[in-house]
């Protein structure tokens, strides 16, 4: 497959690649967040979240221990304290509603592939056994086997739908959802814009509800250089598919493409301490933040940030321990806006499955829901570092409080 100019390479930056900030003004959205103003969405964030009744036992996944429930010791990012997404009440709610783990929702993971099958030297991740997969495609090698050649895509897919309550490894946010593996990034985690565009169109044509793009272009890439990708995303958005992408790992002052595009939910990364991750791009139009792990940014006046203290923890999911696609474990070293994105994709799957926005919410309704239920961080209200705040799975899936009775004037007609 012919490559475009190097400038059109999408680099998946695993928090190791820190380029100098190359801020240009974000052409983007007027966004200014404002938490869903004018959108007919319940203001859950100000309401106590109704309790959940469920008989579902808490997940027994042992994490790095041999003890049932040991996942809690490392998956800080899923829990309520320490600035996680508070997914447990959402799990109970979805299970009680008969849609455990967002069953029935299809999330396309456009990445380095996914360890979804035993195929040649490739092995299915032991903790993706039982996870549902839709047919995918490999647009890098142009074959129907989107095996993971890197480990990144498996980590991302596992944040969304790692097998949960199976006594193995850790958990996934939308563990009942169906993953559609679409390979658009090569062994090094790079891919060109036209290949990614083909992946977006393919996912949109094959039943994806959510498209996860844990990738970014360098900060100096312009919209005119990725026209096909922007058109593919616009077309998917028009079909009602919600697209999520990374704000970028350059510690820059503008959001990278493709997250910068108006049709895409842009996601920055936060640490265990509730501070912006030191690599996470900020910028005009940033929508939301989610756990990406790592060290705190040095932000004066933000009490959550401890740039001189020990860094916060990484994000742990089962993937390759090294470069061998047959050896799996829970490696450290995964932090980045790439890791934040699947938190949002997973929560979106839970929201759609919960039915709180009706059976077919639009991407705009879903974004408004994420924003109105987010936990504010940093400066009060919307700000360009944290967008509308930290996503919260519990609040996002909670039923709306009963609407106030509306008094209608009735004309009597005799
Ligand atoms: Ca392949
Ligand atoms: Ca598991
Ligand atoms: Ca704020």
**Which of globular, elongated, flat, extended, rod-shaped describes the shape?**
globular
Tally of DSSP β-strands: 12
- The CATH architecture term is 3-Layer(aba) Sandwich
Unreliable stretches covering 5 or more consecutive residues: 1-48, 406-414
Please report the first level of CATH classification, the CATH class.
Alpha Beta
Give the full name of the CATH homologous superfamily.
Peptidase S8/S53 domain
DSSP helical segment count: 7
Estimated share of beta-strand residues: 5-15%
The overall average pLDDT, rounded, is: 87
Q: Major sheet: size, sense and barrel closure?
A: 8 strands, parallel
Identify every distinct bound molecule in the structure, by name, code or SMILES: calcium ion
Question: According to CATH, what is the topology?
Answer: Rossmann fold
Helix content: 10-25%
**What is the H/E order?**
EHEEEHEEHEHEEEEEHHH
Query: Which structural category do the helix and sheet elements fall into?
Result: alpha/beta
The count of domains is: 1
Task: Describe the overall structure.
By secondary structure, the protein is α/β, with parallel strands linked by helices. It has a single domain (6-13, 61-396), classed as Peptidase S8/S53 domain (Rossmann fold, 3-Layer(aba) Sandwich). Helix content is 19%, strand content 11%. The chain has 7 helices and 12 strands. The protein has helices spanning 88-96, 152-161, 193-205, 227-238, 337-354, 363-372, 393-397, and strands at 9-11, 106-111, 132-133, 137-138, 178-183, 190-192, 210-213, 242-246, 264-270, 288-291, 319-320, 328-329. Strands 2, 3, 4, 5, 7, 8, 9 and 10 form an 8-stranded parallel β-sheet that branches. Helix 3 packs parallel to helix 4 (227-238). Mean pLDDT is 87; it is low at 1-48 and 406-414.
């Amino acid at each position: 497959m012919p490559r475009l100019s190097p400038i059109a390479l999408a680099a998946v930056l695993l928090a190791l690649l820190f380029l100098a900030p190359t801020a240009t003004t974000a052409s983007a959205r007027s966004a200014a967040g404002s938490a869903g103003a004018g959108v007919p969405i319940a203001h859950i964030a100000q309401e106590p979240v109704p309790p959940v009744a469920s008989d579902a036992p808490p997940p027994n996944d042992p994490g790095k221990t041999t003890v049932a429930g040991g996942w809690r010791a490392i998956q800080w990012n899923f829990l309520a304290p320490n600035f996680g997404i508070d997914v447990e009440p959402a799990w109970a709610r979805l299970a009680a509603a008969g849609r455990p783990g967002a069953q029935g929702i299809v999330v396309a993971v456009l990445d380095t592939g996914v360890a979804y099958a035993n195929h040649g030297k490739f092995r299915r991740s032991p903790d993706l056994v039982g996870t549902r997969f839709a047919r995918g495609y490999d647009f890098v090698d142009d074959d129907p086997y989107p095996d993971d050649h890197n480990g990144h895509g498996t980590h991302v897919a596992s944040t969304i739908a790692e097998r949960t309550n199976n006594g193995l490894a850790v958990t996934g946010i939308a563990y009942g959802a169906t993953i559609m593996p679409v390979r658009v990034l090569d062994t090094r985690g790079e891919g060109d814009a036209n290949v990614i565009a083909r992946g977006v169109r393919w996912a949109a044509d094959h039943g994806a509800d959510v498209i996860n793009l844990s990738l970014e272009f360098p900060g100096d890439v312009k919209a005119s250089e990725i026209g096909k990708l922007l058109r593919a995303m616009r077309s998917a958005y028009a079909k009602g598919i919600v697209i999520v992408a990374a704000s970028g790992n350059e510690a820059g002052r503008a959001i990278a493409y493709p997250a910068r595009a108006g049709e895409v939910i842009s996601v920055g990364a936060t640490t265990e301490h509730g501070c912006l991750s030191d690599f996470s791009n900020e910028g005009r139009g940033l929508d939301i933040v989610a756990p990406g792990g790592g060290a705190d940014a040095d932000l004066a006046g933000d009490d959550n940030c401890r740039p001189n203290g020990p860094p916060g923890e990484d994000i742990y999911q089962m993937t390759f321990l090294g470069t061998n696609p047959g050896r799996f474990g829970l490696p450290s070293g995964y932090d980045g806006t790439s890791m934040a994105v699947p938190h949002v994709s997973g929560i979106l799957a839970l929201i759609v499955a919960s039915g709180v926005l009706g059976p077919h919410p639009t991407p705009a309704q879903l974004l408004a829901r994420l924003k109105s239920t987010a936990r504010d961080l940093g400066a009060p209200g919307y700000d360009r570092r944290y967008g509308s705040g930290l996503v919260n799975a519990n609040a996002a899936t909670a039923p709306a409080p009963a609407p106030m009775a509306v008094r209608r004037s009735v004309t009597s007609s005799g």
